[in-house]
Amino acid sequence: MPQKVQRVKGVNDILPQEARQWQALEHIVKQVMDRYAFGEIRPPIFEKTELFARGVGEDTDIVSKEMYSFSDMSKSSLTLRPELTAGVVRSYIQNNLQQISPVQKLWYEGPMFRQERPQKGRYRQFWQFGAEAIGSPNPEQDAEMIALFYTILKELGIESSVTLKINSVGDGESRALYRSSLQEYLRPHLSLLSETSQKRFESNPLRILDSKAPSDKELVRDAPKIRECLNKASATHYAEVLKMLEAMDIPYIQDDLLVRGLDYYTHTIFEFTSDALGAQDAICGGGRYNDLVSELGGQDVPAIGWASGIERLLLVVDALQPLKADSGLDLFLIVQGEDLRVKAPKLIHEWRRAGLRCDMDTLRRSMKAQMREANRQEASYVAILGEDEFGQGIVQLKNFKTGEQEAVSFENVASYLRSHGS
Ligand code: HAM
């Protein structure tokens, strides 16, 4: 026997039952994005490796060890997107989107790829939906972005079980000041830091703040806070964002240790976390990235965005407030008699064209087996078709729940089900 091919480690098959949950979530996401006037963008799944190296940052975990990179026939290095902010910005620049309007509000959904160690809520192919607003430097844009995700949580009915953690890393000047004050504080304890943090001491000391190593955590507890190093403009921006969140009744906690694992952030950064998950508790992360557009060759245009992991979000939704997905059929056609097998496809074809969700047996099974199949597919009605019925141009429509049965002509089946509510 040939060996079965197994799926790659850390990726998932989303089977039809689960896909219904995904569709219910996607429906909510699309509606909310529409209400907030975001347009959908669908950039490619792979890009030149250089885009992520420059955009996300050479020193980040994503670029230094997690990317799926390969070369194509022209020997250029390509990478399966580990995230979509860099791709959206590349597309914004390349397609001159600023010419269409000075603020571009874009959303997306799709698979991302990172070679991380798989565990619950952490996969190598995972899905994100996300939003990017490119063009406005002002705090009301930050507030709108956060409100956008909060509204999705509300629609899902899980907002009270999710925590919004927020912080500001300020502008370049504030970050430079903080960087040296953090280094000054840590320098005498350098040998106590974990190996990774010692490496980051020069290249990216802010990342030491979110180290998971116990010795680092202990040291970092009393470290100076970035909030205290924000210059006036950065502090004002941040304070205004918080004020607007309060006005919208969006609860938050300020987390002085929150830093994000991607290099492009400036000013406001945030994460939504849930206790319903294990170690991988972030269901959404994002922030401002005022320098990325210019760093990738565009004009000096500010931006802010976030992305949410769909698998993780659905783990939370399943644990707290499962989505109601309408899974059953309207109708299952049950055919009695060999000769009718050739007539049945046309009948069901017409009902489907009339908008009914219906199915029939194609294995030529017994009546009993067809009934079982109708039951398995949670059909509201079965339509029984025998020789007599066919002769009269009718089917016996049987309500699967109540057992009530009525003869209905072929062409009236759709309107009958609509008026009786399948
Ligand atoms: P990120 O924090 O790397 O940010 O990812 C955002 C979200 O994607 C996470 O909060 C998590 O829910 C989900 N996620 C990340 N990695 C995995 C994984 N391996 N398995 C399952 N889910 C995962 C970004 O990607 C930024 N592009 C967000 C952003 C947009 N910032 C500005 N604009």
Indicate the topology:
Layout: H1 16-35, E1 39-40, E2 46-48, H2 49-55, H3 61-66, E3 69-71, E4 77-80, H4 85-94, E5 104-113, E6 125-134, H5 139-156, E7 162-168, H6 172-186, H7 195-203, H8 214-221, H9 232-247, E8 253-254, E9 266-274, E10 282-288, H10 292-295, E11 303-309, H11 310-320, E12 331-335, H12 344-353, E13 358-360, H13 367-376, E14 381-385, H14 387-392, E15 394-399, E16 405-409, H15 413-420
Parallel strand pairs: 1-5, 7-8, 12-13, 12-14
Antiparallel strand pairs: 2-4, 3-4, 5-6, 6-11, 7-9, 9-10, 10-11, 14-15, 15-16
The protein binds histidyl-adenosine monophosphate.
CATH superfamily (homologous) name of the largest domain: Bira Bifunctional Protein, Domain 2
SS strand fraction: 15-25%
Approximate shape? elongated
Low-confidence stretches: none
Major sheet attributes: 8 strands, mixed
In angstroms, what is the radius of gyration? 28 Å
CATH top level of the largest domain is Alpha Beta
Helix content: 25-40%
